[in-house]
Structure formats: structure tokens, C-alpha cells
Write a structure and sequence with these properties.
The chain is α/β, with parallel strands linked by helices and about 850 residues long. Among the domains are: about 1-95 and about 270-330, 3-Layer(aba) Sandwich (Rossmann fold); about 100-235 and about 350-375, Response regulator (Rossmann fold, 3-Layer(aba) Sandwich), CATH 3.40.50; about 405-500, Periplasmic binding protein-like II (D-Maltodextrin-Binding Protein, domain 2), CATH 3.40.190.10; about 520-615, Helix Hairpins (Orthogonal Bundle), CATH 1.10.287. The protein has 26 helices and 28 strands. The strands form eight sheets. The protein has a nine-stranded mixed sheet, with helices on both faces. It has a five-stranded mixed sheet with strand order 26-25-27-24-28, with helices on both faces. It has a three-stranded parallel sheet with strand order 3-4-5, sandwiched between helices. The chain starts with a helix and ends with a helix.
């Protein structure tokens, strides 16, 4: 098409200073020194005013600076390296093909369209390959996509650096972007086919379209579903092009080289880009010379030299300005350049093609089209996309566990993994697994279609060793009550959370209650009680002083009687009981008001504190939570910790400051047994396991306080595991579908032990025994007082019996008079029991 453009300029009678534009064609080989050599030779022997090409980016990095040196434009039609877009670095360079920055942006939008999140990139180690890989990484990063790895194809030795099979299989993605020239693309694909990493699990996207029929037919099934993304022309996506110019160019091609013309439908897009590059230079030269029509010197003047680097085009700046201003509708679409970049800024189109079987083998079929900077769309002539494996469903792009044999390590921990030995009728013993973990494995197996091979960890294996077994390759993954910690993440990876966890304290249940006979006195301190009784006596004396002469209830009574009754009056008003006589003086009433106020506060305070003390007394554990352990309420050697576990890490970092002063234990059963036997007083373990144990197995153990140090369990897997994203996605789906919550309810909400979690509101006899004992003592004293007060009556009765036996009536009368006086005197001075109480 370069020749067609030059010859077409002759037909259109485009001349410079009355002469047709001359041209010379050279074939480069990809060797940059060879490209520079033939360019230098051409410039040395003729007045070359512009270069169309070169085709390769690595050649353009040399020819473009050479063009700047001699002052001529270099217009490429297929060099796409993003670095060449820098106008400051390459001021004489232009191109009619889109930069790889635009190609990378189109690729990122294709990934977003099909919800692919990551890829591996294979690229050739030259300017085209490294520039394309950089552009893709930048575009993916801006779109929050991930490039998992970059694999280098060394064009010097025509080989992949590293083991291609292991690199792709161990990657977490099954999307492969191959960024290489057509020649290298075929070599890389052949190597990948031999390594069985092309379809149906892998989806390849090529940067260039190649002939697939050159491959062995046995690989056709693997090749089906591949994609290629290439810059295309406006006619492919029904965008405007210069059809008149294109038809004229085709006619010239057919006229002068009919044997090489492939047909208008098979002309390579880059040939059309080459035509527009040539036509851009032709029009720029025409504009330059037309603007200098009044200048006597030639518009194509050079500073002559036999050495190519010393030659220089005199009107270089004017010609470059003419190129930058050139704007026309070309055979590939609208052509326009910018002062800021070297790239074409209009008519940027892409086509995505899909490898599909046909009657003549395998062919790439257009399935999507792209108009920068918009989005991908389905062409007017729609073709169904056939994905790898001949499926019509787009792949996830992830490494899938489907059909993979998976060695899964489990560790016995009720109820996460319950291990039972089952003997069948023939006498053979097998191991049966049940619990949260086996149920979870079954849920994942049904969703992901892997083949589980469950292996039980030795009973004496610590949790840290269990986790390390994954990093050393003993298991592919490990599932159990394994806490995710930062220390473990240094050598293994973890999945999304499969169980929300926290730590809890477990202790023996204590059923004995310490009897305190005087617990009812605890609401007030000893000094307050002394002050209380002192106030009673003080107030009673004041009442006696104020009321003894004016109050009828106190008149004609002994002083002791009056003082006791006054103190009784003070007590009755303070406790709210009331008394059997009323105050008669103003001073007494004012004092009574003070007693009411004092009693209101004291009684309320006593009642509240007593209720609080009785409630606290019902909790007979020596600690109430983790803070008490941190404060040393339990000796360190009485605290049992599971050795080499997350609980040990917590104890060392949060409680003992790194000192191993705890009582080390190896298994959960050993911890429970040590608690029951009194070897230890408390232990710190995972809340889930403890809830199950105390609710269903060890009814005489109890949990103390609230949970703390919240964390989670995760499936242990190797770092950068290929299938990590697939596993995480399925775990997340189980969580969103409440499957994990259903498992938790199934295994952790059962309860066989009596419910001891609630606090009883009943107050036991022990808590109030002292109060009743004091009342018993008071009642005995009152009975004794009653008996003592009745002793005179008993004595009088005895005297009357004696006198009845006498013969003298006078004696009897005398005795009766004495007895009557004694009884009357006794009545006048008698203090009854109610008066005392």
C-alpha cells in the first residue's frame, strides 16, 4: 500500500516543484543496526525528506532519533510502544496506528465486561513487548485489575524464561495475555500446547492474529476459544473511511502487482495504516512547498554532506508543523495529530476475534468491536463467542479446583472435627468424621467439584505444627479451628473466615457458698454503724430533754424509762416503723423531721447496698474476667494454656510480657481433666469449643466473663496458592447463603447440660442466716425479759398459797394487804416487753 499511495499521487498529479515525489523501499529484518544502516545509506545518496516506517517498535527507537538528527519526519504504521508517544523524546516521530496505551485500555474494558479480575502476561523482551506489558499493567491498575505475573519470551534464544507449565498452573488466574509479534506468537503457542496449558481451562488473548491451521490438528480443541485483539480500520466497525481513495489504491495494486493482491476483504489492516502514513507525508510536503511559493530557494533544500548524520533538511520545522496540522479522511479512518503527543488522536478502532472451527479448519472470527475511548460492543453482524472447551458460558478466569485431588489435613477438636472408629459387620475398623469441618468440606466439594482426600493430623501435633504442615507440603490445605494470626501469615496463606472466634476463660463450677452470719451488716461500715447507734442515743436524749415534762406518755415515769422510750422513739422514726406515743413540743417535732430525713437516706442506702451485696455473694468465682487474670488474681502456674497455639501467643503478648510462666498443656482433653482434678484453676481457650464443651460434655465446668480478643478461623493454604481466589469466592457464597450460619447452629446451639448461664434471683438461706440468727437472739432475750418481769407475780402466787394454809385470819388479811401493795407498786414500775422492743 506504500507503493499504491506513491503511484496514486502520480495519478492525482501531485508534484513538488514541478516533479513527482520519488520513493525508495527497503526491507528491515528486526535488527536495529541493520535498519539504521540502510536508512543512513539511503539518506546519503539522495535527498530523503521523510521515512514511512519502520514497522517494529525497537527499530523506531533508533530511526526516530536519527530522523530528528537530520530534520525529517518518521511516520510509522505499526510501531505501538507507548514510550514512542513522548513528543519531547521523539519530536520527529508520528504514527497512524494506535499506541499500546489505547490497546491496554481496550483490554482492561474487555476484562471488566466479562468480570475477569487478573491475568498472566507473556511478552517478548524488546521495546514492543516491554512497552505493551507496562501499558497493560498501568491500565489494569487503574481499573483495579491484577497482573499476577509477567513471563518473558527471550527473542534472542527463542525460549521462555522458566518452566511455562509450572508458571501458568501455579498462577491464581487462567487468563493469559500473549504480547508478541506473529512469528514469536506461533512459537510460544506451540510450547504452551506441548505443556497442555492452552484450553479448556486457560483462556489466551493474543496481540496479533495468526494462522491457526499451521498447528497440528490434534491441538485444535485446545485452540478453540482463543481471542486476539488488534487495531482495525473504520470499515470493519462501520465507521467512515475514504472509500474513493481506498478503491483507487486497490486498483493500482491490482494493476501493478496483481499477483500479490489478496483481495479487498483480506488486505491487512497495517497495510491500510501504511497507506495513510504515506499519504500524510505526501500531503505535508505539498503543504510545505505550497506555503513557500514566493521563496526563491527550493522547499526541499538540504545541508549537503556525504556522511548521513551530517546532512540536515533546512525546512525541518516547517515540514513537522505541516505534518502536525495534517487532517484528512484516510482509508483507515479520520487522520489527525496533536502537538502534545506523537500518536494519531482520531479513528482509533479495535476488533476482538474468536478462534472458532470452520469447514476449512480454525479461523479467527470477529465477535466484538471497540471505538476508543468508548466500550466494547457487538458488531452488526453478530457472531456467537465459542469459549475454551466449546462452551457458550464465559470462563471465570480463575484457577478452579474442579476435578483436582485435594489433600486436606484435619485436626481432632470437638465439635469441629469429631473422630469415631466404626467397625463394620466384617470386623473392619474405619474412621468416621463428623462435625463442623467435615460438613464444611462436603459443602465446598458439592460447589467446587474437587476430590477431597482427608488426612487426620497426629493427636500430639500442635496447632503451629499443623499450620506448618501446609507450608512444607504435607497437606494441600488444612481445615480446623485454626486462628488467623499475623505470625502464621508469614509462611502460609488463609482463606476468607469460616468461623468467627474469640477467647474465653473456663473454670470449675463452684457450688458451695461461704456462710457469713453478719453479711446483713456489710452494707454499712463499722464506723457508720457506730455513728448510727450513737445518733440514736443522741437523738433519744434530746427527745427526753424536750418531752419529759410536757409529754403525758413520759410523765410520772422513771428516768430510765423515759430515756429508753425516747431512744425507742428515735429508732422507730429512722427505720419508718413509728412509735406508740406522739411528740408534744415544737422542738420535738423539729427533731422528728430531722430523724425522718436521716432515716429516708439511711434506709434507702442500706437497702440498695444490701441487695448489691447479696447479688455479688451469689457469684462465687474468684475472678470475673480477663482483667482479673491480668491483675494476678490467679497465680500464673495455675493457668493452663494450650502449648504452641494462638492462645499461647495471646498470653505471652497480653498477659505475661513474653514470660512462659503458665501451666503448659498439649490437648483440649488434658486441659479439661486438669481443671476437674484441681491441677489448674483456669484456662484460656477458643469460645466456640468451650461453649460446646460446657453445654454438652463437661457440665461441671463454666465460662467466666465476656469473650475477648475477637478473631476468626480460616482455611490454611500455601502462600500465593493458585486456587485461593476460587476458594475464597465459594466460601463467601456459603456465607452469603447462610450455609455457615446453619452449620454453626447445627453444632454449637445444642445443649445437654442444665442451663447455668442465667443468674438466679433467689436469695439463699446462707446469705441471710446471720440476720435470722440475730433475730433469734433478740427473741430469746425478749422471752427472758418477759420471764424476769413476771417473776414478782409468780412470787406473789406462792405467798398466797402459803397464807391459805395458815389458821389466823388476821395473818391472812395482813398478808393480803402486803401483797396488794406489792402488786400495785409492781404495776406502777413495770416495763413491758413491747416497751423495750
Amino acid at each position: 500500500m506504500f507503493k499504491a499511495a506513491m503511484l496514486l499521487s502520480y495519478q492525482y498529479n501531485i508534484t513538488i516543484e514541478g516533479e513527482f515525489i520519488g520513493w525508495q523501499a527497503e526491507q528491515t529484518t528486526g535488527n536495529i543496526m541493520h535498519a539504521l544502516n540502510i536508512t543512513c545509506h539511503a539518506v546519503s545518496v539522495s535527498n530523503v525528506v521523510g521515512v514511512v516506517g519502520p514497522a517494529l517498535s525497537r527499530e523506531s527507537h533508533v530511526i526516530a532519533p536519527f530522523g530528528e538528527t537530520i530534520g525529517i519526519p518518521v511516520i510509522s504504521y505499526s510501531a505501538t510502544d507507548p514510550d514512542l508517544s513522548d513528543k519531547n523524546a521523539y519530536p520527529n516521530f508520528y504514527r497512524t496506528v494506535a499506541s499500546d496505551f489505547e490497546t491496554a485500555a481496550a483490554l482492561a474494558k474487555l476484562f471488566i465486561r466479562y468480570s475477569w479480575t487478573s491475568c498472566s502476561i507473556i511478552y517478548q523482551n524488546d521495546a514492543f513487548g516491554t512497552g505493551g506489558a507496562y501499558a497493560i499493567s498501568t491500565a489494569f491498575n487503574n481499573s483495579r485489575l491484577t497482573v499476577n505475573q509477567m513471563i518473558v519470551f527471550d527473542i534472542a534464544i527463542l525460549s521462555i524464561r522458566g518452566d511455562l507449565k509450572s508458571l501458568l498452573i501455579n498462577a491464581g488466574t487462567r487468563m493469559v495475555v500473549l504480547w508478541a509479534e506473529s512469528l514469536y506468537t506461533s512459537l510460544i503457542l506451540k510450547k504452551a500446547l506441548d505443556s497442555d496449558v492452552v484450553g479448556p481451562q486457560f483462556t489466551w488473548i493474543l496481540s496479533s492474529t495468526i494462522s491457526l491451521n499451521s498447528f497440528n490438528q490434534t491441538f485444535y480443541e485446545n485452540l478453540i476459544g482463543m481471542f486476539s485483539i488488534e487495531p482495525t480500520v473504520g470499515s470493519v466497525i462501520n465507521a467512515p473511511i475514504n472509500a474513493t481513495l481506498l478503491d483507487a489504491a486497490y486498483r493500482i495494486w491490482q494493476q501493478y502487482e496483481s499477483e500479490s493482491f489478496p483481495g479487498s476483504m483480506n488486505v491487512d489492516n497495517f497495510a491500510l495504516f501504511a497507506f495513510d502514513a504515506t499519504w500524510t507525508l505526501i500531503q505535508s510536503l505539498q503543504q510545505l512547498c505550497a506555503s513557500r511559493i514566493n521563496i526563491s530557494s527550493s522547499c526541499l533544500s538540504f545541508i549537503e554532506s556525504s556522511y548521513c548524520f551530517n546532512r540536515h533538511f533546512i525546512h525541518s520545522k516547517l515540514l513537522l508543523d505541516a505534518v502536525s496540522r495534517t487532517e484528512f479522511l484516510g482509508v483507515s479512518g479520520p487522520i489527525q495529530f496533536s502537538d502534545n503527543v506523537t500518536d494519531r488522536i482520531t479513528g482509533l478502532y479495535y476488533s476482538a476475534k474468536n478462534a472458532q472451527p470452520s469447514s476449512n479448519g480454525l479461523n479467527f472470527v470477529p465477535v466484538l468491536e471497540y471505538f476508543y475511548p468508548r466500550d466494547w460492543r457487538i458488531p452488526i453482524k453478530e457472531n456467537v463467542i465459542v469459549w475454551p472447551g466449546r462452551t457458550l458460558t464465559p470462563p471465570s478466569g480463575l484457577a478452579l479446583l474442579e476435578g483436582i485431588n485435594l489433600r486436606i489435613g484435619v485436626i481432632e477438636a470437638v465439635p469441629f472435627t469429631i473422630v469415631e472408629k466404626v467397625t463394620n459387620p466384617s470386623g473392619q475398623t474405619t474412621i468416621k468424621y463428623s462435625g463442623y469441618v467435615p460438613d464444611l468440606i462436603e459443602l465446598l466439594r458439592n460447589k467446587m467439584k474437587f476430590i477431597p482426600i482427608i488426612e487426620l493430623a497426629p493427636s500430639n501435633m500442635s496447632y503451629d505444627k499443623f499450620v506448618q504442615s501446609v507450608s512444607t507440603g504435607v497437606y494441600d490445605i488444612a481445615i480446623g479451628d485454626v486462628t488467623v494470626t499475623s505470625a502464621r501469615r508469614e509462611y502460609v496463606g488463609f482463606s476468607n473466615a469460616i468461623f468467627d472466634n474469640s477467647l474465653r476463660i473456663i473454670m470449675r463450677t463452684t457450688s458451695t457458698v461461704k456462710i457469713d452470719l453478719f453479711s446483713f451488716l456489710k452494707p454499712f461500715s463499722r464506723n457508720l454503724w457506730l455513728l448510727f447507734f450513737g445518733t440514736l442515743i443522741y437523738a433519744g436524749i434530746l427527745i427526753w430533754i424536750a418531752e419529759r415534762k410536757d409529754n403525758e406518755a413520759l410523765q410520772n415515769r422513771s428516768i430510765l424509762y423515759q430515756i429508753v422510750m425516747s431512744i425507742w422513739y428515735s429508732f422507730g422514726n429512722i427505720v419508718g416503723y413509728g412509735v406508740d406515743f406522739e411528740i408534744a413540743t415544737s422542738a420535738g417535732r423539729l427533731l422528728t423531721a430531722g430523724l425522718y430525713i436521716l432515716g429516708l437516706i439511711l434506709v434507702a442506702s442500706y437497702t440498695a447496698n444490701l441487695a448489691s451485696d447479696l447479688t455479688i455473694a451469689k457469684s462465687n468465682n474468684i475472678i470475673s474476667g480477663i482483667d482479673d487474670i491480668k491483675n494476678g488474681k490467679i497465680p500464673s502456674n495455675r493457668i493452663g494454656i494450650l502449648a504452641h497455639s494462638a492462645e499461647e501467643d495471646y498470653y505471652l503478648s497480653q498477659i505475661s510480657n513474653g514470660v512462659r510462666n503458665f501451666y503448659p498443656l498439649k490437648t483440649y482433653d488434658e486441659i479439661y481433666r486438669s481443671l476437674l482434678e484441681g491441677i489448674i484453676d483456669a484456662s484460656i481457650l477458643d469460645n466456640g469449643i468451650l461453649e460446646y464443651a460446657t453445654n454438652n460434655i463437661y457440665c461441671n465446668l463454666t465460662l467466666i466473663g465476656n469473650d475477648f480478643d475477637k478473631s476468626s478461623y480460616g482455611i490454611v493454604m500455601p502462600q500465593h496458592w493458585s486456587y485461593a481466589q476460587d476458594l475464597d469466592m465459594n466460601i463467601l457464597q456459603l456465607k452469603e447463603g447462610d450455609d455457615l450460619e446453619n452449620l454453626r447452629q447445627k453444632w454449637f446451639e445444642m445443649q445437654l447440660c442444665p442451663d447455668s448461664s442465667g443468674t438466679s434471683t433467689d436469695i439463699g438461706i446462707e446469705a441471710a442466716s446471720g440476720l435470722f440468727l440475730v433475730f433469734g437472739v433478740i427473741s430469746i432475750l425478749s422471752l427472758l425479759l418477759f420471764a424476769w418481769k413476771k417473776r414478782q407475780n409468780i412470787k406473789n402466787c406462792l405467798c398466797q398459797l402459803i397464807y391459805r394454809k395458815g389458821s389466823s385470819a388476821e395473818t391472812k388479811d395482813s398478808m393480803n394487804r402486803r401483797s396488794s401493795r406489792t402488786f400495785e407498786h409492781s404495776q406502777n414500775h413495770q416495763i413491758t416487753l413491747p416497751d423495750i422492743v
